[in-house]
Amino acid sequence: MDEKDLGADLSKVLIPEDVLQAKVRELAAQIDADYAGKDLLLVGVLKGAVMIMADLARTLHSHASMDWMAVSSYGSGTKSSGVVRILKDLDTDILDKHVLIVEDIIDSGLTLSWLISNLRSRGPASLEICALLRKPEAVRTEIDCRYLGFDIPNEFVVGYGLDYAEKYRNLPFVGTLAPHVYGGTGG
Ligand SMILES: O=P(O)(O)OC[C@H]1O[C@H](OP(=O)(O)OP(=O)(O)O)[C@H](O)[C@@H]1O
Ligand SMILES: Nc1nc2[nH]cnc2c(=O)[nH]1
User: Keywords on this record (predicted)?
Assistant: First the structure.
């Protein structure tokens, strides 16, 4: 989709496609170096992490297995409820595995905070986070994120996996949703 063809719902392109892809290559190089000689399991958090997971996984030089979890914390709006439910669990037993959670965004941090304690209780050899985006002004619980793409302002963003009411996930860039669309001031 053309970055200039924003339509009325998006106010601006926050992170263009080429900048996203350069960051993916940077993150993949760090991950390759850190996990050299280890079996790595990438755990993508559906649905938002689909794009970063797919791009990251195929940019890695080393082999990595992939699994997915789906959790729900947002309902249909733009604020985290803080109540997390597992909608789809892992197919893999992660005991003694090197697990890297791949997320699109850390907003309040509530989803990842819950996910980390859930996965840690399963006894992985290691557990780290890779998140494409983080909103420092919105964080309600600090997340130790080993691999981070970008810190962004506290605005509701869409594209590259991120949706508003299931729209915009397939934009190849990250854009800011115009406040008139959701009537809000933040994420
Ligand atoms: O840090 P938090 O405030 O908890 O927000 C982050 C979570 O919100 C988004 O998921 P969402 O619940 O929108 O589901 P989706 O990935 O299926 O769109 C995103 O993918 C993270 O999982
Ligand atoms: N699409 C989208 N989902 C989110 N989940 C938490 N924060 C956000 C955000 O800014 N945009």
Answer: Cytoplasm, Glycosyltransferase, Magnesium, Metal-binding, Nucleotide-binding, Purine salvage, Transferase
Ligand nearest to the CA of 72: 1
Q: How far is CA 108 from CA 4, 34, 53, in A?
A: 30, 27, 21
How do beta strands 147-151 and 126-134 pair?
Answer: parallel
Q: Which atom of ligand 2 is nearest to the CA of 168?
A: 1
Instruction: Quote the pTM value.
Output: 0.93
Question: Ligand 1 center to residue 48 CA distance, Å?
Answer: 7
Q: Name the phi and psi angles at 136, rounded to 5.
A: -55, -35
Short-list 96, 87, 86, CA closest to 41: 96
User: If you measure from the C-alpha of residue 138 to the centroid of ligand 1, how many angstroms do you get, rounded to a whole number?
Assistant: 13
Give 94-117 pLDDT, tens digit per residue: 999 999 999 999 999 999 999 999
Q: Is residue 109 part of a domain?
A: yes
Q: What is the residue range of 65's domain?
A: 18-153
177 CB contacts (<8 Å, ≥6 apart)? Answer: 9, 10, 11, 155, 156, 157, 158, 164, 168
**What CATH number has the domain bearing residue 40?**
3.40.50.2020
Ligand minimally distant from the alpha carbon of residue 162: 2
**Mean pLDDT, residues 146-158:** 97
- 178 within some domain: no
163 catalytic? Reply is no
Tokens 């940077």, residue? 26
